Structure formats: C-alpha cells, structure tokens
TrEMBL record:
It holds the Pfam family START. Residues 1-19 form the signal peptide. PANTHER family: PHOSPHATIDYLCHOLINE TRANSFER PROTEIN, START DOMAIN-CONTAINING PROTEIN. It comes from Acinetobacter pragensis. Gene3D superfamilies: 3.30.530.20. This is START domain-containing protein. Residues 30-203 form the START domain.
Length: 214
C-alpha cells in the first residue's frame, strides 16, 4: 500500500514545531474547536500560520490519515494530485510530487516535497516537509513552487484523544494580490482540519503506522 504524508499544503507555510516565528501572533479563527493563529514576519510579506485542534480518535488513526497518499485528494483542500516519488521507512524519509488546484483565472501550482517523519521520547509524532527545486520535470501548465515548508505534530492526550497541530508557509509565486494570499492563509488550515475531522468520523479501521513511528 502506498502511503506517505499528504501534508495539506495547498497554502501551507513554514514554522518548525519547536520554534514559532518572531512577532505577535494573532488568533484569526477560533470556532468548532479549531484555532488558527497568523504571524507576520518583517522579512516576508506572506503570513505564516499555526493551527490546532483536538480529535477524539487514537493518535495512530489521525497520523495514518495524513500518511495515506492515495486518499489525500478526497479531503485536502485544493489538492488536485499527489504522487509518491520515493520512500524509505527505515529513515522515515519520502518525496512527493503534488499539484494544487487554484481557482480560475489563476494557474495551478505544482511542487516537489521532501518529507521527514519521526517520533520523540515523549511520543510526539512529527512530519516535516519542505519544497525541493529539482526532482520532477517542469510542466508548462503549472507554476512551480520552490519556497514552501510545513510541519505536522501529533501529541497523544489519551487512548481516544490526540492534539493535532500544523504549521507552515508558502510563496504562491506568480501575480496574486497579497491580500488574497493572506486571506487564503487564514482559511485553508481551518478548512483542512474540519475536513480531517469529517474523514476520521467516517472510519474506525485499525491504523498501522511505519515502524519508525511506533
């Protein structure tokens, strides 16, 4: 079965799980048990975000949904295509090719993602992603994104409860008004976590994770 992180990245952004960006965070959305904070960096006009929620499912089930590349287009906002290029379960590394559907008249975007998954001594599972400049042929139908980073963190709170956090940044490239981009930054992570909840409610199947995450 082909699995790898689907990393909800249609708009995603750049912050590491351990260190949030400098500056004062703004709580942009707080509803349906989902919070989205946005950050402004003086060196980057595009906002960064952190979003989090608590899900009433085992941590394994939440992580498995993110890792299921074949099912990602069914629930990740604006994701048109995802293809697994390589994966090394022993190292916890993988590469993906993704196509993002942008609304007309904007051109769709594509990107190559290098990912790393790990589990620390406290049992927190992380998935970190960044864009690569090479690794898949250019397609004139798409605008290639090369400035992207995005992280996931999963913290077990109980047998049927997990805290899910996602962080990120992306330069969408091309001629897109900054105000439109920043509005997208606020809404996309909220929609993503909402859809994630809905998907997890559909199935209670036993989840099996890669050995490195057990």
């Amino acid at each position: 079965m082909k699995k790898v992180i689907c990393m909800a990245c249609a708009a995603a952004l750049s912050v590491s799980v351990q260190a949030l960006p400098a500056g004062s965070p703004k709580l942009s959305i707080n509803k349906n048990n989902i919070k989205v904070w946005t950050y402004q960096d003086s060196q980057n006009p595009v906002m960064m975000y952190k979003a989090e929620t608590i899900l009433n499912v085992p941590i394994e089930q939440a992580v498995a949904l993110i890792l299921n590349v074949d099912h990602a287009v069914d629930w990740v906002p604006f994701l048109g295509k995802m293809k697994l290029l390589s994966r090394d379960d022993k190292k916890g590394e993988f590469q993906l090719y993704m196509v993002l559907d942008f609304p007309f008249p904007l051109k769709d975007r594509d990107l190559i993602v290098q990912g790393k998954m790990a589990k620390d001594a406290q049992g927190i599972i992380t998935i970190q992603n960044k864009a690569l400049k090479k690794g898949y042929p250019l397609n004139s139908s798409y605008v290639r994104l090369t400035s992207y980073e995005g992280d996931w963190a999963f913290q077990k709170l109980g047998p049927q409860k997990v805290k899910v956090s996602t962080y990120g940044y992306a330069n969408p490239e091309g001629s897109i008004p900054l105000s439109v981009t920043n509005m997208f930054v606020q809404q996309q992570p909220y929609q993503m976590l909402q859809k994630m909840k809905t998907e997890l409610e559909k199935s209670k199947a036993l989840a099996v994770l890669p050995e490195i995450l057990k």
